[in-house]
Request: fold
Amino acid sequence: MDKNIKREALYLYVIQISNFIIPLIAFPFLTRALGVEGFGKLGFAQTMYFLFVFIIDFGFNLTGAKSISLYKDKRNNLNALYTNIQSVKFFLFLILSLLVIPIVFMMGYKNIDSIIIGIALLASFSSFLIPNYIFNGLGINSILAFTTVLIKSLFLIPVFFVVNTPEDILLAVVLQIMSGLVVGLTIQYIIHRRKIVKFKSKLIKKKLYIIETKKSFDNFIASFFTLGFTYLTPILIKVMLGDAALGLYAVVDRLIAAFRQLYAPITQAFFSKVCIAYETKSKEYILMLRKISIIFLALGALAFLGNLLLGNILLPMLFGEAYDVYYYLLIAIVIQVVVSFASILVNFVIIPSDNTFILKKIYFSAVIIYFPLCWFLLDIYKLNGVFFSMLFIELYVLTFLIVYLNKKMIVLRGI
Reply:
C-alpha cells in the first residue's frame, strides 16, 4: 500500500474501532432496560431508518465516489457532480415523504409503530446532509469518520440517564438514530468552511443528473434486491414471530453490523486507488485485490474463533440470559465472511469495470429464491430458518459472481 492508503486506512481504523466500541457501551444496557420486545421495537426503528436512507442514497455512495475520484483535481467538475447528485437526493427525500407521511397518519398518532416510522423518516434526511461519496471519492473519509464518532458519543451519554424501562422506547429511538441529523449539519459546515465542494444551482444540468442517476440506477436496483437480506427480513420476522424474536435477531444484527465496520476502512481506503488502477491497467490492481482478500479472510476467521471460544461466556454476561444468541451469531459470522468476499467482487471488480448491470440479474434471482425459502424455513425452524436462508442465498450470490467474472475474464482486463 502506498503512504496515502496506509495513512487513510490507519485513520479510518482508529475511528472504526471507536465506532465499534461506542455502540457496544450502550448495547448491553439497552437490551436489559428495554427487554426483548422493546429491543425488537428499537430494531424495527433502525430497520426503517436504514431503509429510508438506502432509498435516498440511491447507490450514489459508490458510483458517485467513482465519478468524484476521476475528477478530484478539477474543481468545476466536482462542484457540478456534487450539485446534481445532491439535487437528485433531495428530490428522492421529498417523494419518500409524500409516500410515508400519509401512511403514518392512517396508522394513528397513538400507534407506537407509526411514531417510530415518523422519527425514522425525519432522521433519514441525514442521508442528504452527509455526502459520503464526496469523502470516499476524494479519499478524506477520516474527516467524516471523526465527526461521526464525536457526535454519536455525545448522543450516547443521555441513554444511561433517560432510558430505564420498556416505556422509554421512544427516547431510545430518538437518541439512537437522530444523531445523524446533527452529524449532517456539522458535515455541511465543514464542507463550507474548508471549501471542499460547493453547491451551485446554476450547475444543475439535465444531462449530467440523468447520466449520474443512470449510472447509480443499476447499483441501486441490485442493492434493492438485497433488501430481503437486510431491511425486509426484520419486518418479516416482526410479522411472523413478533417483537421478541425480532429482539433476538436485532442483537445478532447489531453485533454483525459492528463487526462489519471493521471491513469499511479497507474498502474506503482502497476504493479510489483500485478504480484508478483498473482504468490505467496497472499491475498493482491484482496485488491490491489479493491484499484486500487476505485482510477480509483474517477478520472473519478471528471473529468466528472468538465467538466459538468465548461466546457462551461473554454473551450471557453482556445481554442477559434472555438473549440466547450464541449459535445464531456463529452462523451470522459465516454469512458475513461470504458477504465480504462478494463485496470485494462488487466494489473492486464489477463497479470499476462498469458491469453493474449484471447485479440486477444476480440479486433479482436471489430475491426470487430467498423469500419463499425464508418463509418456508422460518415457519419450520423459526429464527434459525432465517439464518439458514441467508447463508444459502449469500453463497448463491457469491457463486454467481465468480462464474460470471470467470466467464467474462473481467479481472484480467484490469491488468
Notes: The longest helix spans residues 3-57.
